[in-house]
C-alpha cells in the first residue's frame, strides 16, 4: 500500500505542475523623444500707396501693410515686432524731387490679429499704437507664455506728402525686426 500511495502522490504532483505556469520574466526600457525649437520670424508685404496728384497743399496717401509673424521656437518666452522706415527717396520722374522724410510715414491703425497654425486660441497678442515709423515702433507683441504659432495682422499706413512735392516715384525701405522679448 505504501507503494501505491507514493505513486499516487507523485502522479498528483506531476498533474498539478502542468497547470501552473512559470513566472513571466519582465525587462524595462526607456523611450525618449526630442523636440527641437524652430525660429522666430516676421515679414511685411510690399505696399504700393495710392497715387496722388501734385498739389500746393500737403496731402495723404494710404495703403495696407500685411504683417506675418511666426513663433516656432517652442520656448514660450514671448516676442515683439518693430518696424522702421527710411526716407522716401525720389527714384524716378526726372523732376529732381526731394526725399520725403521717414517721419511722414505713419501707422494710422492696426487691424485685427488673425491666429493661424499653432495658435491654440488662448494665446494673446498685443497690438501697438498708431504713430510714425520714422523711428522704430513696436507694432505687435506677445507676453511670456503667449504668441506661440503663426499670426497675421493688417497695418493701415499713411504717407503724408508735403506741399510742393515733385511729380515722380518715391521709394523707402521698411525694416521689420523680431526680438524674443515682449516690448509692450
From TrEMBL:
- Cleavable signal peptide: 1-26
Instruction: From the Swiss-Prot or TrEMBL record, give the protein name.
Output: WxL domain-containing protein
Keywords assigned: Signal
Give the species this sequence originates from: Nesterenkonia lutea
